[in-house]
Each structure stands twice: as structure tokens, then as C-alpha cells.
Q: What sequence folds into this?
């Protein structure tokens, strides 16, 4: 006997004690799929037969059932389940999670049950218990379907139990195995000409009659419903959809207009409004009306409310679908997918006010939908509305998946007038997008963050608390905080010689990682800055919930406002925006906003307090004390020499003092190279070296030379304000090329430069052990004097510093890089702050690890 069980769903095993439910469950289902009342008694009381633990056991059972159904898991409840009130609690949980309920009833002979229980010493109860179970089952059999149980399988003998073969059946909406690629099209509403034009633009080959089509690359069309009403050719659109679905090259979900048409075709009373009257007239004019009506009824009646596609990464539904309903099978799911959800209020046009479910969406899957026409598509929390009002004179829109490329065609006419203007704002004082808010629960406590590059990154509770304290008190407005850069690891420390750091160990490390070439970039001695720049007010509003006149933000690597003076920041962003326009960067990248990573020079522009309170006092005090000490020592040595009693020991002390004076002078010279006077933006330069992201892409898939070549054009356009970044490509298999890198580093550092950063050619490189270090900084000998102190070059100091531990710093660099990449990729993908900020917070949280800040 074959029992077909939908997966996921809730399966109730109903039977008296001794019916063999646990044996049946163990034979046909994984142990993790079975939630047993006896097992729950054992978990709470160490005794699976403890009747005193029943209440606690079922509380645990209900909790486990909640969690499993919420995670789309087939769950089998192994309990007697003979009483209606007990089943009602389980069915209510399934309904909350929109899961189908099915049952296997073990209606076995009473004599067999008594014989089995007699063989089990743990079943210490009289025959009246089994008799009561069987009576309850007989009373229930006729009403199980009315309780909400969809499929009921009754087994009346052990032979039937032994003959059972379980077949798991995916729900009709479960097409996760279909990975596309897809072309997802918004509401057509009878606009056949526009649909055919859009398909041709998407690369589809349409036959001369416009009734069939195929894509040479095997793409599939997904229609988001509302095929009919208001437009000039509703029957022809339905016919094309039927043919494409029948040919296996398209999927279609129903829209509310399609469902209303089906009711009309079935003879049910409906009002011929909102364009249905026009559709009925078009159908009546068909020469083969009866054949069309019969085919359309079958087609529309068979449409599934929504689909989960591409391993669950994509969900398509006419009016959208909240996360808990994905993959659900209930009337509530179908209603939401068809009509969305309203607040119960009406607006000034007499239309229902719809609940903005997308603003609160927190799911991992991307949801594509239509239903509510908008003038412009706008990503919001991994959701996108593709109804751009073609029938109202707007456009017909499609999204290519997984490319996430938007393709649109203009309407050829205004076929109907909308009741209210598209995107009618609720208030002219607020941005048209719904504001995304950050819940503290998203970032507090222990966090396990999933990233594409480093699997998971775990943050301890104390780390997230520290990050929230910093960002809560000092950070820029969260809506601009979409990325924080990672720390950067130094190379392995030199084992001998006058240097702590040189390029050779870094080159060897990248060679061991399997790379053939790397890129050496000049390291600027400035202050790290992330710049988020918008080209238009619309970009500020649409992507950053901004207001007219906002050009973006400039912030530090810890998320703080870079410029204290808002006017200076505005001027900085204005200059950078002009340079981007002059270099045609916005057009070339097809983006009205950009995110840069770079250095703002000079170092003193940001580090005035550090210079004033640390470096300058140390230099001045050391110079004064050493100078005075040298004078006294020189006088003492001269006096002893004149007296004919020279002291070699004192002369050695004097020489050491002179060396100290030289080290202090070198120290003052070192940090002085990176300081010059500025006033406002006068004297300030920006050296961008990464173009991180734009509207359609996070540019981590582009090689570093692509970034630098674009930035060269930008620097040329912003001459005087923008600073170039020198670079050198190094062939790791060529000894001469490697030596050129070392020589270039020596020239840079001996002429006063900080050093260089050595990176893989690709922005992201994976090696045999996973993510390769994204960059290794190699700093010059004199720059390290600023970091480690004036006299770090003394032999005894160098020996101590050679023992510095680098392991934790290297691990931090990789983990922070993975978090930053994930954060920006999620933002570009349209995720809200609740998806982006935990990763941004994670970068700062990792910075609280106890690592030597000089590394």
C-alpha cells in the first residue's frame, strides 16, 4: 500500500497503545523527523512512561513541532492522538505555519493490542485503557477531515501496516529543483504587443503568430499573474501563457484579476468592473470562444498560488508573500499571494490601504511580485515589485534571474486610467520609500553570521555590546553605514637583519597559496575613509532614505563621521561628485550612487589630536631631555679628558646618547612627512584605491587593476584634489619581477613613503586553505619608527619585536574582509539594514579582540 505524504507537512500517527506507531515511524522516517510523546517524557523526567510528566512532555512536543514546521520540515507526531482536543492543538500549530495536516490511523484489532501490551512490562495499565483508545478512534474516524486533516490513511491489520510504502511528494509550489535561469515578468493586463516586445528584448524567439516562443539559451519565463483585464488583448495573452506553460518553457502564478475571470467563466456571480467587462467582450468576439473558455478554465484553475525556485533562493507570487508563508499550503497563503494584506482602512481614492509587508520582510529568499503598480522598481529587503503600470501607460518590466538585470519596455498607449496616480505619496515631507529600522535584537548577544567567503563568523556577546556602544554613540546615520573595511595583516616578521618587515615573506606566502601573480600598491600615509556618494536626490531617497540636497557621507574605518564640519564634508562630496561626472563614471557604471574605499591625506587632517597629545609631546620631551643629557655627558667627558683621566665607559654612554638623539630626530622627521597645514578642504587630498559598489553590483568580482584603471580616470578628472595610487604587477614565478617589487618598496620607503600593500590580482582569491589574505601591508623601516617608538631599531628592541604574534591579526583580517564583502553584497541586493548591519557591526566587534594595535 502506497501512502503519499506531502513534504513538508504534519503527519499525525493515531492509534491506541500497542498499535506499533513508534515501530512504524522508525521504519519509514528519520529519527529527527519524529517527535514522540514518550521520548519527550523521557527528556523531561528520565522516564518515558511517567504520566506525571505528561503536561511538560507535551509542552516540549508542541515547541519542537513549532520550530520544525517553521523551518519547512516534515514532522511526524508519534502519540496516541486519539482525542479530538489533543489533535486540535497540533492542527492549530500546523495552521499557524500554513502546513498541511495528514494522518495515519492504526485501527487494529483489540486482541492484538492487548497481546502486545502484555509483553511489555513498562505498560502497567488495565485493558480498559486500550478499549477507551479504540472507542475514541471509532468516534473520530468520520470527522477527521472536518477537523482539518487533509489525507487520512486507515490501517486495519498488521499485514496492511507491513505493506505500507511511504512516498514523499513535494508540494505543488515546491519547484526548488528548477534553477532557471528565469525571466520574471510583471502584470501584463492584456498588453500583448508589449509582452512580445519585452520577450524579444529578453532574447526570446517568438513565432509569427505570437502564440509560441522559445529561448535559445534555455531560459524560462515566469508570469506574475494578472494576465487579463483593461488591456486590448487579454484572451491572446492567456493563450500565449497557456502555450508556453504547456511547452514547459514558462511558469505562471495567478493574479486576482485571473481568479475573478475564472469565477465569471464558471458562471459564478461577479461584477464586471476593473476591466473584466472588456475582457469578457474580447472573449465573446473570439471565433473559437467555447474551446478557448474550456481551455482557459482548466489552465486558470490549475495555477498554483506561488512558487519556490532556485533551491529556495527565489519566491514568486502575484501580491508577494511574507516569509512564514513560503512553501505553505493554506487558504491564507493563497489569499495573501493573490491580494496581499490590507490594514482595514481606505485612502482618499476609496481604495484599501495595503500593509507594506516588504518593509518588514526578513527572509533569505528574494521575493518578486506585482499587483500594486509603481512608477519605478525599487528593491526593498530582497523584494521587488515588477508591476510598473504598463496598462496605465507605464512600462512592462522583467527581471532576469539570477543576473538581477531589469529589462523594460514602454507602453504603446494608455489603455486605462488608474484610480490613483502610481506611487501616490502619503506625505511630501517624507521619502517615498518605507524606512527600514534596525532592531537591537539583530545585533545584540552572541551572533553567528553567515558569509559567502568564510562560511560563518562567530561574535561573542561582549564583542557585540562593545560594537553597539561605539556605533550607538559615535557612528554616522545608520542608513549610510553599509560597509566597514577590514584590518590588514603585516607579513611574517623578518628573522634577522635591520628590518622587521620586507616584501619577500609576503611574496612567498602568496606563492604558497597557489597564486602566479600579485599586485603591489603604494600605501598612502593618510586616514582610511569610506565614501558613499550619490549623483542625484532620487538616488539619495531611493537607496539611502535621504532628503533633497544630501550628497552622501564620509566616515572612518570605525563608522564615525570623518569631518566634524558638515560644510567641509559637503564640499568634499561635491568635488568628488564633480570628478565622477567629468570622468563619466556614473554613466559608465550605470549607477547613480557609488561607494569608495581610500585614504584622505594628510594624516594630520584627521589625527590632529593624536599628533598634539601623543607624537609631538613625545618628540619634544625626548628631544629636550636627550639634548640636555648629551650636553652634560659631553662636558663630563671633556673634563675627564682634560684631567688626563679619560673614561671609555662614559664615552660609550655619550655615543649611545647621540644615537638616541639621532633616533628621535628620525622619529620627528617620520611623522612630520605625513603632516602639512590644511584649512577646510585646502590642502586635503583623497586617494581612492577601491571602487566598492554601485547600483547593480558590488565590484568584488573585478580585479584590482580594473578598480585602479577606473580610478586613474577619476584622478585625472579631479586633478589637485584626487591623489593617484602607484602600482606594480609582479609575476611570482619570475625572480626578476619579484626583485623589482623589493626594489620598488625600498625606493618608496627610503624616499619617505609608508610602504606598500601586496594583494592578489583578483579582489577575492581562494586557495587550498580557503580565503587568501586579501592584502598584506609591508611598511617601511622609518614608518615603523612612528609605530614602535624612536629607538625600536636598537638590536635588543628588534629581537624582542621579532617575537610578535601575527596569527590572530591574520585571522581577523580574513574574517573582517568576509563580513565587509557580505554586507555590501547584501545592500546591493536590496536587503534592509537588519540584514546589512549585523555584518557591519561584526567588523567593529572583531576589532575588540585583544590584538596588538601596532600590527
A:
Amino acid at each position: 500500500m502506497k501512502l503519499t505524504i506531502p513534504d513538508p507537512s504534519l503527519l499525525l500517527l493515531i492509534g491506541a497503545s500497542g498499535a506499533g506507531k513508534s515501530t512504524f515511524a522508525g521504519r519509514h522516517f528519520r529519527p529527527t523527523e519524529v517527535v514522540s510523546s514518550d521520548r519527550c517524557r523521557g527528556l523531561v523526567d528520565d522516564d518515558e512512561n511517567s504520566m506525571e510528566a505528561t503536561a511538560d512532555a507535551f509542552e516540549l512536543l508542541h515547541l519542537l513541532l513549532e520550530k520544525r514546521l517553521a523551518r519547512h520540515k516534515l514532522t511526524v507526531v508519534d502519540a496516541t492522538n486519539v482525542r479530538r482536543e489533543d489533535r486540535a492543538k497540533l492542527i492549530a500549530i500546523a495552521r499557524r505555519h500554513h502546513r498541511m495536516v495528514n494522518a495515519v490511523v492504526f485501527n487494529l484489532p483489540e486482541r492484538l493490542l492487548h497481546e502486545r501490551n502484555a509483553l511489555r512490562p513498562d505498560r502497567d495499565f488495565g485493558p480498559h485503557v486500550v478499549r477507551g483508545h479504540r472507542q475514541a478512534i471509532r468516534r473520530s474516524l468520520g470527522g477527521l477531515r472536518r477537523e482539518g486533516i487533509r489525507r487520512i490513511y486507515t490501517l486495519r491489520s498488521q499485514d496492511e501496516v507491513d505493506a505500507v510504502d511511504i512516498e514523499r511528494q513535494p508540494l505543488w509550489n515546491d519547484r526548488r529543483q528548477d534553477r532557471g535561469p528565469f525571466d520574471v515578468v510583471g502584470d501584463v493586463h492584456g498588453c500583448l504587443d508589449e509582452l512580445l516586445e519585452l520577450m524579444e528584448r529578453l532574447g526570446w524567439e517568438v513565432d509569427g503568430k505570437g502564440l509560441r516562443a522559445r529561448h535559445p539559451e534555455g531560459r524560462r519565463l515566469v508570469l506574475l499573474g494578472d494576465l487579463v483585464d483593461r488591456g486590448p488583448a487579454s484572451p491572446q495573452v492567456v493563450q500565449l501563457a497557456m502555450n508556453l506553460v504547456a511547452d514547459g518553457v514558462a511558469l505562471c502564478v495567478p493574479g486576482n484579476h485571473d481568479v475573478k475571470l475564472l469565477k465569471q467563466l464558471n458562471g459564478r456571480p461577479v461584477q464586471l468592473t476593473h476591466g473584466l467587462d472588456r475582457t469578457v467582450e474580447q472573449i465573446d468576439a473570439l471565433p473559437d470562444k467555447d474551446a478557448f473558455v474550456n481551455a482557459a478554465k482548466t489552465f486558470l484553475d490549475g495555477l498554483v498560488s506561488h512558487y519556490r525556485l532556485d533551491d529556495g533562493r527565489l519566491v514568486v507570487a502575484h501580491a508577494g508573500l511574507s516569509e512564514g508563508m513560503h512553501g505553505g499550503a493554506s487558504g491564507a497563503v493563497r489569499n495573501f499571494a493573490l491580494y496581499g494584506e490590507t490594514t482595514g482602512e481606505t485612502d482618499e481614492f476609496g481604495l484599501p490601504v495595503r500593509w507594506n509587508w516588504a518593509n518588514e520582510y526578513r527572509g533569505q529568499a528574494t521575493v518578486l511580485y506585482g499587483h500594486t503598480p509603481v512608477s519605478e522598481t525599487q528593491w526593498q529587503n530582497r523584494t521587488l515589485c515588477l508591476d510598473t503600470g504598463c496598462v496605465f501607460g507605464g512600462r512592462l518590466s522583467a527581471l532576469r534571474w539570477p543576473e538581477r538585470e531589469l529589462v523594460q519596455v514602454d507602453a504603446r498607449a494608455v489603455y486605462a486610467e488608474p484610480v490613483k496616480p502610481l506611487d501616490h505619496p502619503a506625505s511630501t515631507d517624507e521619502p517615498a520609500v518605507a524606512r527600514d529600522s534596525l532592531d537591537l535584537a539583530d545585533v545584540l548577544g552572541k551572533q553567528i553570521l553567515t558569509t559567502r567567503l568564510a562560511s560563518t563568523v562567530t561574535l561573542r556577546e561582549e564583542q557585540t555590546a562593545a560594537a553597539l556602544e561605539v556605533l550607538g554613540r559615535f557612528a554616522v546615520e545608520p542608513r549610510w553605514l553599509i560597509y566597514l573595511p577590514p584590518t590588514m595583516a603585516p607579513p611574517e616578521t623578518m628573522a634577522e637583519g635591520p628590518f622587521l618587515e620586507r616584501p619577500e615573506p609576503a611574496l612567498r606566502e602568496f606563492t604558497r597559496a597557489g597564486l602566479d601573480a600579485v599586485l603591489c600598491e603604494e600605501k598612502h600615509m593618510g586616514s582610511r575613509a569610506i565614501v558613499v556618494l550619490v549623483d542625484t536626490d532620487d538616488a539619495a531617497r531611493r537607496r539611502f532614505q535621504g532628503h533633497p540636497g544630501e550628497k552622501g557621507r564620509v566616515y572612518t574605518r570605525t563608522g564615525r563621521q570623518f569631518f566634524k564640519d558638515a560644510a567641509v564634508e559637503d564640499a568634499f562630496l561635491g568635488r568628488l561628485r564633480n570628478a565622477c561626472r567629468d570622468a563619466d563614471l556614473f554613466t559608465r557604471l550605470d549607477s547613480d550612487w557609488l561607494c569608495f574605499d581610500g585614504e584622505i591625506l594628510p594624516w594630520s587632517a584627521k589625527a590632529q589630536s593624536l599628533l598634539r597629545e601623543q607624537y609631538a609631546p613625545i618628540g619634544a620631551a625626548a628631544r629636550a631631555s636627550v639634548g640636555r643629557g648629551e650636553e652634560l655627558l659631553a662636558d663630563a667627558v671633556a673634563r675627564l679628558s682634560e684631567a688626563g683621566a679619560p673614561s671609555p665607559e662614559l664615552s660609550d654612554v655619550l655615543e649611545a646618547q647621540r644615537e638616541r638623539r639621532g633616533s628621535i630626530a628620525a622619529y620627528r622627521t617620520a611623522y612630520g612627512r605625513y603632516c602639512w597645514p590644511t584649512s577646510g578642504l585646502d590642502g586635503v587630498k583623497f586617494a581612492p584605491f577601491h571602487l566598492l559598489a554601485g547600483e547593480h553590483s558590488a565590484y568584488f568580482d573585478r580585479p584590482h587593476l580594473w578598480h585602479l584603471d577606473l580610478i586613474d580616470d577619476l584622478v585625472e578628472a579631479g586633478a589637485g584634489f584626487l591623489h593617484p595610487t602607484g602600482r606594480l604587477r609582479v609575476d611570482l614565478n619570475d625572480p626578476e619581477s619579484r626583485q623589482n617589487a623589493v626594489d620598488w618598496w625600498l625606493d618608496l620607503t627610503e624616499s619617505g613613503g609608508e610602504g606598500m600593500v601586496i594583494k592578489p590580482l583578483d579582489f577575492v582569491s581562494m586557495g587550498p586553505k580557503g580565503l587568501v589574505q586579501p592584502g598584506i601591508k609591508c611598511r617601511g623601516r622609518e614608518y615603523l619608527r612612528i609605530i614602535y617608538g624612536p629607538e625600536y631599531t636598537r638590536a635588543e628592541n628588534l629581537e624582542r619585536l621579532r617575537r610578535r604574534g601575527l596569527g590572530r591579526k591574520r585571522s581577523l583580517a580574513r574574517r573582517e574582509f568576509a563580513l565587509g564583502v557580505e554586507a555590501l553584497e547584501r545592500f546591493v541586493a536590496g536587503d534592509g539594514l537588519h540584514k546589512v548591519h549585523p555584518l557591519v557591526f561584526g567588523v567593529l566587534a572583531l576589532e575588540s579582540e585583544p590584538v596588538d594595535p601596532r600590527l
Remarks:
- Residues 424-435 have pLDDT under 50 and may be disordered.
- Residues 230 and 523 are 62 Å apart (CA to CA).
- The first helix runs from residue 21 to 28.
- The radius of gyration is 35 Å.
